[in-house]
Amino acid sequence: MAATSTHPDVRSLSVSSRLTDKHGRAITDLRVSVTDRCNYKCIYCRTGNEGAQYAELPIADYLRMVRVFVSLGIEKIRLTGGEPLLRRGLIDMISELAQMRTAFSVEGVPLASGAGRPLDIALTTNGHLLQELAQPLQDAGLNRITVSMDAIDHEKFSRITRVPDSFNRVLAGVRAAKRVGLDPVKINCVLLRGFNEDQIVEFAKFSRDEGVIVRFIEFMPLEEDRVWTPEVVVRMEEILAALNTFQPVVPLAAKVVSETALRYTFQDGAGEIGIIAPVSHPFCGHCSRVRLTSDGKLRTCLFSQSDHDLYGVLRRGGDDGTLAEFIQRTVDRKEARHHIGEPDFLKPSRSMVHIGG
Ligand code: SAM
Predict the structure, then answer these.
(1) Per-residue confidence at 53, pLDDT binned at 50, 70, 90?
(2) Taking a C-beta distance cutoff of 8 angstroms, is the pair 307, 350 a contact?
(3) 7: pLDDT confidence band, cut at 50, 70 and 90?
(4) In angstroms, rounded to a whole number, what is the distance separating the alpha carbons of residues 75 and 6?
(5) Of all helices (H) and strands (E), which one includes residue 79?
(6) Closest alpha carbon to 96 in 124, 69, 49, 64
(7) Whose CA is nearest to atom 12 of ligand 1?
């Protein structure tokens, strides 16, 4: 289902400047939440209650804002939510994003020709609808995918997602993503003490058996319900210790400096594990990310106390130059770091499902 229409202005746009914040960090990654609806109610993310209200903008408006970000040097776009596969129009949106790869140029030379890095398009999903959508996503131009899975044990999986029989559906989705050639397929696993820390070795085996990268994520205080305490967090050292009981782990070199995960394999070279440790080993110093929420607010940190109404600028008739100025001004004020675990920590103004993970 190839998109035929691209924004008329897009071909004349060039990458004019690099987005940099006042701490000197280059901002190259944009996460775009395309809905805050979700069909799972993971215990560490959502309340068990149905939210009646949700926020979604027309796909064309997300694209308009993304186009301005790309013109400012954004190189990687991750679509997220909520659950992005629930979003009507997602496949066409990815086709349009894929067209931006060749539409933008650095001093007249298209990015895809090697003068710059081509736009990387990724997506994070719970995988529930992935079996059906893997091929259309790949055809539309998605590069790679991350699927959230918090247990290998089927019952535990359903207890966490609060959706019966969800494991087999997600597993089928992971396999479909591999089959159609989305590469790499990554698995995100949030560990919570008392729920799933006994799954670490199972996930190590899963990485090796299924040929996927498993990334363990420390639980952050971003949930709708107030369940986060420092004690619930399963920290990096503990994860490594558990993996070492299976087979000695071997560190892998970082591919890019802004990488969130520390990468490991095992002594025999099979399997890849990432550990994302924002609580015990924060990586704010080389953060390259900003986020656009499903209602069009720009967030400079997961833990921001406020967000910035980029969509409001668009709605009031702002042209691309005005949007670009607003983005530059907002990014400049990006927070130096988060304060998780410190006495002055304040919970962010929104929870993960409403920010876009
Ligand atoms: N629905 C999609 C999914 O399940 O992947 C995308 C949205 S979800 C909010 C994105 C990622 O954030 C998931 O991998 C999820 O496990 C992670 N996540 C949610 N709440 C979190 C928290 N409090 N701490 C760490 N990761 C969290």
Answers:
(1) confident
(2) yes
(3) very low
(4) 19
(5) strand 76-80
(6) 64
(7) 357
DSSP 3-state of 251? strand
- Cis, bond preceding 184 (omega within 30 deg of 0): yes
- CA angle 97/98/99 to nearest 5° reads 90
Which pLDDT score, from 0 to 100, does residue 210 have?
Answer: 98
Q: Domains plus CATH for the chain?
A: 10-355 (3.20.20.70)
Ligand 1: distance of its center to the CA of 168 in Å? 19
Pocket of ligand 1, beta carbon within 6 A: 38, 44-45, 80-81, 83, 124-126, 148, 188, 190, 217, 219-220, 222-223, 352-353, 357
DSSP string of 144-165?
Answer: EEEEE---SSHHHHHHHHTSTT
pLDDT tens by residue, 160-186: 999 999 999 999 999 999 999 999 999
Q: Side-chain half-sphere of 237: how many Cα atoms within 13 Å? A: 2
Taking each continuous run of H as one helix and of E as one strand, the counts in the chain are: 10, 14
- pLDDT tens, position by position, 133-145: 999 999 999 999 9
Q: What whole-number percentage of the chain has pLDDT above 90?
A: 79
Q: Quote the tokens at residue 309.
A: 């109404």
Ligand 1 center from residue 157 Cα (angstroms): 14
pTM over 0.85: yes
- pLDDT for residue 110: 56
Q: Is 183 left (phi over 0), alpha (psi -120 to 50) or beta?
A: beta
Strands of the sheet with 272-276, listed across from one edge? 249-252, 262-266, 272-276, 213-218, 185-191, 144-148, 120-125, 76-80, 29-33, 289-292, 297-299, 308-309
CA–centroid distance, 76 to ligand 1, in Å, is 19
Exposed/middle/buried for 138, CB within 10 Å: 0-12, 13-18, 19+? buried
Which pLDDT belongs to residue 349? 84
Whole-number Å distance, alpha carbon 357 to ligand 1 midpoint, is 5
Residues 6+ apart with CB under 8 A from 253: 263
